[in-house]
Specification:
Blueprint lengths: L1 H16 L8 H8 E4 L3 H14 L3 E6 L4 E9 L2 H11 L6 E14 L2 E14 L8 E8 L2 H22 L1
Antiparallel strand pairs: 1-5, 2-3, 3-4, 4-5, 5-6
Helix pairs in contact: 3-5
Length: 166
């Protein structure tokens, strides 16, 4: 009886601690992923590329006429962590994540530019000892902190470029 009660309490605590990802409306997503900058189009476009490169993104494609920027970054799990996974489970279930970013830079006026970012994460690893590396999970990132950090860095780079021109 005590074991059953203990099991129920543990299950309740576990389930209560699981936070399901809240569903966001398209407008909420747009609010998280979009920011207006008080700067000209070219300066904003080039500042965005600079920040992505500073963050170790590899720029895959740019088109200044349309405002499109595509970039990726591979964040590998540390070797020590991979070793522990292999030691404990016989395979490496988490080898890292590939982040794919697409960015649209839109000219609003001569002094205003809007940026919309789209960030996608694919985790990869091995599902078993005998399998090769493959994609394990894939999801869109909608963490406001991630977008705010990128937008703040773009703002700083825009201001740096404006200061250099003066």
């Amino acid at each position: 009886m005590k074991r059953l009660l203990l099991f129920c309490v543990i299950c309740f605590v576990f389930l209560a601690s699981c936070n399901p990802t809240p569903q966001l409306s398209p407008m909420q997503i747009r609010e998280i992923t979009t920011k207006l900058f008080e700067a000209d189009y070219e300066n904003t476009y080039r500042a965005t590329i600079t920040v992505l490169q500073d963050q170790s993104y590899t720029i895959k494609m740019t088109d200044m006429n349309s405002g499109l920027i595509n970039a990726t970054v591979d964040r590998k799990t540390s070797g020590g962590n991979q070793f522990l996974q292999a030691l404990l489970s016989g395979h490496v279930s988490d080898k890292g994540s590939l982040y794919e970013l697409s960015c649209m830079v839109n000219k609003i006026s001569d002094t205003s530019t809007e940026i919309r970012l789209n960030l996608h994460q694919s985790q990869y690893g091995q599902s078993s000892l005998l399998s090769g590396t493959s994609q394990q999970d894939s999801k869109q990132i909608y963490d406001p902190k991630v977008y705010k950090q990128l937008f703040d860095q773009i703002e700083v780079e825009i201001q740096r470029r404006i200061a250099i021109k003066k």
